[in-house]
Protein: T9SS C-terminal target domain-containing protein
Amino acid sequence: MITTSSTFWSCGLMLRVWWLVMLLGSSSLGLAQSAITPVHTGRLADFTAWNYGGDVSTQTVSSNDYLRLLNSAATVTTPTFNFANYTSKSLNFRVRTFNGVDAAKNTITVTVSADNGATWAAGSYTRTPGSSTLTAVSTIDLSGINATQVKIRFQSLGADGAVGVGIDDIAITGTINSANVNIGAPVLSEAAVCAGANLNVAFAANGTFGSGNVFTAQLSDAAGSFANPTSIGSAAASPIAAVVPGNAVAGTVYLVRVVASNPGVSSPNSAALQVAKPIVSVAPAGVQSIALGSSGLVLTATETPGVTKRQWAMATSAAGPFTAIAGEVGATYTPSFSAAGSYYVVVQSEFGGPCNTTVRSNAVQVNVTLPKTLLRWDGGGDRVSFTDPNNWSPDLVPADGYDLLLDHTFVTSAYQVMLPTGAPVPLSLSSMVVNPNGGAAITVTLPSGNTTDDYLRFTRATDALVLHSGATFVNNSGSGAGTPVDVSTAGSNFVVYNGAAYVHRTNRSVSALLDNLSATDGTENGLFAFETIGTSSSTVSLNGRTFGRLAFRAVAGNISYSSSGTNALTIRGNLEIEPGATLVINLNADVTLRGNLINNGNFRFSPSSSTARPRLIFAGTTPQTISGTALGGTTSSSYLGANVVLQLNNNLGLSLATPVTLNAGAASAANNGGLELLSGKLSSSASAPLTMAPNALVINTAANSYVSGPMIREVALVASTGAEQPASNPVLDFPVGTAERTRTVSLTLSPGSTGTASYLVEALEQAAPALGLPATLERVSAVRHYRVQRLGGSATIAQASIALPIATDDFVSNLAGLRVAAAGKEQSTFSDLQGTVNNGAIVAPVPTGLNTQAYVFALASAVGANNPLPVELTAFTAARQQQHVLLRWQTAQELNSAWFEVQRSTDGSRFVGVGRVAAAGQSAGLREYRLLDADAPAGRLYYRMQQFDTDGKSTFSPVVTVAAQRPLTVGVYPNPASEVLHIDAPGAAVRWQVRNHLGQVRLQGSAAGPTAIKISNLPAGVYFLHVLSEGQHTEHKFIKR
Structure:
């Protein structure tokens, strides 16, 4: 079928004609239903197969060419068509008027000739449009015409050259009579083919098929069903070059048929077709893991259909290339390899006809690992060498993948293991565990004679390198580069338990190993010690780290260690800097200590950035101490930087055993250092005061966190602009305190000149000195007083004022009568400074004598019966005595006193009486009292005393606190012991005794903190160590070898 499109003008009207041109003769093409594609442009020259009569011409309108029928003689006649092979034939077209509406002139007449135009009697049809708008499609039924030489003629008989009719969208449609066509059963070029192979399909097509007809070969499923056929090839005529799908399953009853598209008829089925599909699989298909030298699970090949030949092969990648495994051609194969690694095993099977191909199976992964051999030290060889096989059980030299255990199963005395010297090949162990288990010390050393870079690796995911109490690993590598010791598997698998130590005595990196350092419970005091040699300076990795106990040592001359970064450092045990060593921390982040700062060398915390304000945080759970070299100004050998804040966040407190200065920059600096008190008291002393340099800040102060002891503040009185006068009146806050309460004292200075000044303030929880009183004062505080002293400086202070805090335990009952009393060192009588009460404090001018001598300041009363206690209480203390608490107090004077009642609380708010003691009544001298609380609970306790007068009035003493009774915890090691027995005792004083099995005391002594007992003179045998502290007692059994 050939389709044509024509656009005509009839008297100026557009005529678009869609033609199905049926070619006569041997082509035998006929009409198809619809689906007409235009192929002509509309010019007369393009319609040479058509006949035109009358005045027919072409006119171009809007870039389109149209045919025009201009008079009544204008006629358009189609070529000849064969209608014999078609059914349901029809003629379709649309019409419109042209140049006016006139029924006679607008009528189109259609006639049909069944004898190739000889006569036109087959039918006569007319259509008359009513407007210049195209009508709906008009259909003329031509089903009754079955001639072989049919022509159709269009005439506008009434047109007069002015008014006419236009025709558009002419189409002749019809359906081929399928009864007149058929397809013979296809003949296949092969009776058996391989999936994916080519196949020729020949067939006979009988009758006339429609234009554009396509023959398609279809393949059934393996059961011969065409319910869901697969198209395997197409052609316009026989034969069809088909391809059997590569994914076809094997089968012997496949069928092929041929279907036509126009008309839609299909052939009978072909003869049965066999499709071969070679399939090879290996089972079990899962990943296997086997130790080197052992065999894996048997692999079995399943092949369909049978094979002519097979070969097992392997590769180190799943994608190959694969190498034949010599001699392995059977249906099964047992994996076995001579080296560790990952392997991929396949079977390659050759198949005969019809496929004649080689197919590779699925790949099975086989992981070959080194044997997990556990070697335990038995010292059966030279007793020292790591590489002596006789020192291990079994007698093997440690090799890659081995697990090592060094304990006292075979050797009960102390011993040392020396790794090899020279340049041995790198060693990758699975793990090493050193566990004296309470026995003698065990030391493992990587000697300086070992020069292999990246020598020792541990690969286990957990507990790769583990040091238990009494174990020491010394890394003294002499390598020139790399990381001599490392755990190569990520995780917290490098564990240094309390009592154990890792000593880094090399100039090589340890950063990668620190990535694996564990912070699990029981490692808080595990020691990591830097003992770098071969250099005078070393950069260490502290940025973002968490250590247990951390030490820096100088073992081969003075050395400076430094570290920088922006991430916090946490040290859960002590930070120890030994003589000759300097530690410079340039981190722009917090450093947290949960143990003590023991600075016997030099320590500098000096952030590299002035825009940060990092903190040195003391946040332990036991009392903490700063000792050793003083932390001074920023020009000292040890100091805290000008933007470092010392923060105390430990309710058990921090004690200074050396002077500490908190530094700052200029007054205008944005991040000056200073002091932050969140919890606990900071204890200082005359020999170890706390000093705040000029411009240092008191950032936060909690109600129960304060400085207990002397506190010094320095001030720089700078000149104001344009005059040599001090710029302002600085206020110096001193967050001192007593009796579990912060009692901030403030000094406001009015300087008379520029320069410097420094002041000391200390709060004392005791009555003010017994000095004379002026006539304006009745008494001074019997509770507490404050020591204030100017220590020096070049500035002249014209005037100053002091603010003393007022708390509930100052027992102030009449603010109007409250005064400040002061006395210089040389005075025998207090001065009445009077004062003004404001915001919980009383402010009074400071005597000018403060510039030259120390003063005491105290709250005082100008009213006889009010304010500080009528009974002058000079001391009130509580202390545990084994299971009891002893309360003691002193009075300096008593007036009409009746009795004292001691009260106890477990929460600090609800008190109950525990005992009563009669008072003296009238006394002008020192008197002492005591009461034993025999039923004191073990937890934290609060005590106060209520003093009753003979007139029924009463007042309360300050509240004192008794710490909870802690279980006595003592560590004893090693066990068994031969030379020295170590006692890991608490900081409190303890007494100890070593007794034999008869209870006889053989050794005894005392200690405060860890100590060592020499037991080398004791005979071998079983002994008992008794430790006594604060009424508690523990007993430890040990063996002397």
